[in-house]
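We include the pair:
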Amino acid sequence: MIEQVKTYEGGCHCGAVRFRVRVKNHQVEDCNCSICAKKGFLHLIVPSEDFELLSGEDNLTTYSFNTGIAKHKFCRTCGIHPFYIPRSHPDSFDVNIRCLDGDSIDRFQIRSFDGKNWEKNVHEIQ
């Protein structure tokens, strides 16, 4: 696991959406809630100032459900969900580390998060 600040780039499958993210904490959550389990999302929550959308804003579509606070972003061309605005941290970005370029996933510590019981466990999200 990397401890220093590192910058990564990533994007969707077709390349229309590209982003850059500065990572200070290389620990991510693997959530078992209904949407995350289906998407295979591995959560890296970063402050807004550490996220930059490089291209593809016009190619993003938003999906919201339940409380409507979370804004799940996905590419309208390939359907990949590279990041979203999380309900737990609405002033931040939650990046799917599976969408980072190269072998970046190997640099992160992955821990399980019980999102099926989100209300009870939300305080554990880093």
